Amino acid sequence: MKWSVNPSTPTLLDANLEIAASGLPPNEEVRVTLTLLHSNAQFQSFAKFVVPGDGVLDFAKTASFEGTYTECDGMGLFSSMCLMPSQRLGTVLSFGNVEGLFLNYQLHVYDRKNRLLGQQTLQKFILDPNVERREIAVGRIRGVLFKPRGAKDRRFPTVIDLFGLGGGCREYRAALLASKGFAVLALALYSYRDLPKFNTLVHIEYMKEAIDWILGQPFSSSKCSILAHSFGAIVGYQTVVRYPGISSMVALNGLPYVDGFGTVLENGKTVPSFPFRRDHAKEVVHMGNVTHYSPMWDVILDNEAEEVAKFRIPLESAPEDVAFMIVSSGDDRTNCYKRVNKELVERLKNANPRRRVDSVLLPNSGHMIDPPHMPHIGIAYTPPVYWAQGGHQYLQCVEQRQLWPQIIAFLRETIPADSMKEQSKL
């Protein structure tokens, strides 16, 4: 048999592939597996097909009748990968430095008697060769900068990329965005190098320092956007209402108020957050050793809505030209983002009908929203807790494939063009 892979690998992680196998036994059942073997995690997907009469199995044209997905989907195997049984519960695919990193996938085809008919190695990478990576340690700022190489006199739409619980500096989203023509600072908030170890010690002034630094670079746009997830979105929201220089924000499952799971400091003092009580903990659902927090938040929002409202971040006070893209998951098991963000969108639109507010609901997705072809995270381990994240193994990844170009388009439309910076200088 022969393989046809277009474009030929290696390709960027978020790139789609057209894969077909020819020379297979016509009208026979075959099983195809895709395995990702990474140093810290191993994932696998599988699908069963009936080979068409011409002996050519094109994944984009032939539907799987059984497997980790059952659709006609050319990237279905990539979008339905499951953590292999040998891996520890809560293991996620994570990377440090993405420079020179390749993800190796093994594609195998078996007949009904489990005999190997063919195999193929596929590779994906995260850092485009045309993107430069530079570690940043300026003042208190700690992170990694990604931007297109060359074009010394060119300015790029600029983004600050923030993640949530777990800390560290996660580079993959920033690196992929840079391949689309953005200058992106993957900014660590805590638990990275000499930054505070815990998310209870994040100073909001740190964000102002990062904004001032990135906008002071010769390659930056006149304003920047913030792309942030979870606790990172709480920090981003706090930043938008305090400091200039921000044109827009993309919030991925971010709370529009401050809760007690992660606090922010301003002028050395803790920004008030919703106080958790012991009776709240009774509403947390434990299934085995996996913790589901969203039921607790449903009860809190049902019974204490007025108290929660006291800790809202006053996003209505953000400059009226700041645009928002608010992304909520319908199956998030960590909080009720669909519920609270519906209220937030209404609040923002009522306060200023002229403000751009894009609301995106991912009905089958859980908490962790990633770029295309990252494996679904149903459970995450943040010591000492196994957090239920939610989401459908396959459908969430499909929704992420649809969301990614929407995010890129929103950023391009809401970050000022290069000429705006020249005009501001004049």
Helix share of residues?
A: 10-25%
Return the average pLDDT rounded to an integer.
94
Class of secondary structure makeup: alpha/beta
CATH homolog superfamily of the largest domain: Alpha/Beta hydrolase fold, catalytic domain
Number of helices: 9
Q: What's the CATH topology name of the largest domain?
A: Rossmann fold
Distance between the termini: 64 Å
pLDDT < 50 runs, ≥5 residues: 419-426
Overall outline: globular
Strand order, sheet with most strands: 11-12-14-13-16-17-22-23
Count of strand segments:
25
**What is the CATH architecture annotation of the largest domain?**
3-Layer(aba) Sandwich
CATH class categorisation of the largest domain: Alpha Beta
Radius of gyration: 23 Å
Number of domains: 2
The percent range for strand residues is: 25-35%
Give the quaternary arrangement of the chains: single chain
Domain Acyl-CoA thioester hydrolase/bile acid-CoA amino acid N-acetyltransferase: 14-136
InterPro entries: AB_hydrolase_fold, Acyl-CoA_thioEstase_long-chain, BAAT_C, Thio_Ohase/aa_AcTrfase, Thio_Ohase/BAAT_N
Protein name: BAAT/Acyl-CoA thioester hydrolase C-terminal domain-containing protein
Domain BAAT/Acyl-CoA thioester hydrolase C-terminal: 202-414
